[in-house]
Amino acid sequence: MRRRAKAIEFDIELDDLPQPARWREWMGRVEAVIFASPKPVPREILARVVGQNCNLDLLIDDIRDELRSRPYELIAVAGGFQHRTKRSFAEAIRASGLVGTPRTLSQHELMVLTVVGYFQPVTRGELSEFFGREISRDTIASLRQRDLIASGPRSPQPGAPYTYVTTPAFLSEFGFQSLRDLPDMEKLEEAGLLSRSALAELPGVFGSFIERDEPAEEVEVAEMETAIED
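Above: the chain's sequence. Below: its structure in token form.
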């Protein structure tokens, strides 16, 4: 009868190594795991390859320091960590022809995605109410195909329509660690992307999300799209 090979236990503590060598090994392990993953790696996954007394925050800081002169960096995004090429090398990458030009969102798709991001979970009917015209299934399908939104819980409205929510890919695409990193309304107003007064004047569910500091002027929702075009 063939004996089963005894599994070799993975040593995470590395007690036999001096502290500097142990730290370097932990750095290498963490960076290797992040490099091998196509998605951001959560902290709890990284904790599996280092000792219990390892301070992951300090370890990540040391890895970032070593990458300062490299064309890529280690960023916190979508609830994890990921290697990404620095933006200053974007032109060189495009010039190489190895990476195709990604399909950009249309202004309309970006506006719909913005509303989903801030008011999720939200139904297609509520999105249509927000914009004052029907939001087509094609627009929703396009955002779903890019994995930027997904189906959320059923709405308590008559007919129990599906709601839509953003995805981890949405966070990764825009460099957010979590939804708490979304710009506040004031910053969006300054950039001309959203109008607080326009939101407050909308009928139905959306107006209730906006606190009015003073009476809002009558503003057409279409002005928000015009602000982007400008």
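Residues 19-36 form the longest helix (18 residues).
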